[in-house]
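Researcher: I'm preparing a figure for a lab meeting and need a structural model of a single chain. I don't have an experimental structure, so a prediction will have to do for now. The sequence is pasted below. Please return the structure as tokens so I can convert it later.
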Amino acid sequence: MAKQYPKELKERAVRLVLETREQYKTESAAIRSIGAKLDIGPESLRNWVRQAEVDAGARTGTTTEESAQLKALKKEVAELKRANEILKAAARFFAAELDRPHTRS
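Model: Understood. Here is the structure written out token by token.
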């Protein structure tokens, strides 16, 4: 299971990498060093840095906001599909009831 990090720690770690990466030979070296100091895996920190760059417009990709919107839209589509299936089932039921001969008492 993936380790959960507090939002503040993620933001601090990304900020440290972005502000100090010029002091290291490579960005990877900065990520490994800062990750080790904050007990964060280098791949997690690398992903956070990449996402921060996308969110800032410095890198192409899907922003955090766009991802959240997409997730919400997918959820809404699934809910609408379920509602549509319920309505179709109800329509079939009522159509069958209307087609059935009724006897008067």
